[in-house]
């Protein structure tokens, strides 16, 4: 131990020899040609790995279809969502600033349903599925916002928020190829003893069959989902308290009572209007 410490030169020179040994021409224990071979080996090795990865990726992408998802649920069941996008709708009806964002949201959401925009779309047969499996460019059935009457934002530009009887739009999420059997409609109920009066647009809250099936984003551009507007006919006794409203799709084979998924075929939100 002490011996070595006395000869630091020798230790250093053996280190130097290890890095580069001028006598044998070795660099870190190997000759240049040996290093070149190792380098070449790894180059080929990783090149092959990258090649195999790209090849499998390419083969897999070939099996995918641009138009429909490859994997999806065996039974396609849509979720329900509401507009305005809020699970807690609360405002003082005498203070416009408090409901402005709901009104703005509804107004911008309904732009794509403008009558002028929708007039470019097809007038479809009421009550019939609009099958167009063979068509290259799928057509879209008209859904004009004027169908939503008092909830269209046309005559009443505040969607009932100023009068304290707000509208909420209910829509089903898009599911490619979905053809609901029966006559799906939206039924909303207030979770309390006494029922709450509501108005539905279009009549009876129906989703017409003509809006199904949907063929996917790429095949079916400009597709618009059918909507159901629900106007909550709140009265003086309903103000200043929180109401829980549940809307469900009924009258069809669409599921609305899944234990685990609270949004499958139904949606729950709270409303609190003050004056
Ligand atoms: C929709 O209609 C409203 C008024 O009816 C208009 O202000 C708005 O610009 C229209 N939007 C589109 C996208 O056509
Ligand atoms: C809506 O749901 C309520 C509660 O489940 C039920 O009593 C009522 O009959 C339903 N209305 C319609 C039109 O199905
Ligand atoms: C709602 O606004 C009005 C007018 O500003 C006010 O008098 C009333 O107290 C407000 N209601 C609540 C519950 O805050």
Automatic annotation (TrEMBL):
Superkingdom as given in the UniProt entry: Eukaryota
InterPro entries in the cross-refs: Na/K_ATPase_sub_beta, Na/K_ATPase_sub_beta_sf
Gene3D superfamilies cross-referenced by the UniProt entry: Na, k-atpase alpha subunit
GO MF assignments: ATPase activator activity
Keywords assigned: Cell membrane, Disulfide bond, Glycoprotein, Ion transport, Membrane, Potassium, Potassium transport, Signal-anchor, Sodium, Sodium transport, Sodium/potassium transport, Transmembrane, Transmembrane helix, Transport
PROSITE patterns in the cross-refs: ATPASE_NA_K_BETA_1, ATPASE_NA_K_BETA_2
Pfam families per record: Na_K-ATPase
Major localization class: membrane
Self-association state and partner proteins as the record states: The sodium/potassium-transporting ATPase is composed of a catalytic alpha subunit, an auxiliary non-catalytic beta subunit and an additional regulatory subunit.
A GO cellular component entry from the record: sodium:potassium-exchanging ATPase complex
Subcellular localization(s) per the UniProt record: Cell membrane; Membrane
Biological process according to GO: intracellular potassium ion homeostasis; intracellular sodium ion homeostasis; potassium ion import across plasma membrane; sodium ion export across plasma membrane
Residues spanning the membrane: 35-61
The name this protein goes by in its record: Sodium/potassium-transporting ATPase subunit beta
């Amino acid at each position: 131990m002490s011996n070595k410490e006395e000869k630091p030169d020798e230790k250093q020179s053996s280190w130097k020899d290890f890095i580069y040994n001028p006598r044998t021409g070795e660099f870190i224990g190997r000759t240049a040609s040996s290093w070149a071979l190792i380098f070449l080996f790894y180059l080929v090795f990783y090149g092959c790995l990258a090649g195999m990865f790209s090849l499998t990726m390419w083969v897999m992408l070939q099996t995918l279809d641009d138009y429909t998802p490859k994997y999806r649920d065996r039974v396609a069941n849509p979720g329900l969502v509401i507009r305005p996008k809020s699970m807690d709708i609360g405002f003082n009806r005498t203070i416009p600033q408090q409901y402005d964002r709901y009104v703005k949201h509804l107004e911008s959401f309904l732009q794509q349903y403008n009558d002028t925009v929708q007039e470019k779309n097809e007038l479809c047969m009421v009550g019939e599925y609009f099958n167009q499996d063979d068509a290259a460019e799928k057509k879209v059935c008209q859904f004009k916002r004027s169908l939503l009457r008092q909830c269209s934002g046309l005559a009443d530009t505040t969607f009932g928020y100023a009068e304290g009887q707000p509208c909420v739009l209910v829509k089903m999420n898009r599911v490619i190829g979905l053809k609901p059997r029966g006559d799906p409609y939206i039924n909303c109920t207030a979770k309390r003893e006494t029922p709450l009066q509501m108005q539905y647009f279009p009549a009876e809250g129906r989703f017409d069959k003509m809006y199904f099936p949907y063929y996917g984003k790429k095949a079916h551009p400009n597709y618009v989902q059918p909507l159901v507007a629900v106007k909550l006919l709140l009265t003086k006794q309903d103000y200043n308290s929180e109401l829980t409203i549940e809307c469900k799709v009924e009258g069809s084979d669409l599921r609305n009572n899944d234990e685990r998924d609270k949004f499958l075929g139904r949606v729950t939100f709270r409303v609190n209007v003050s004056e």
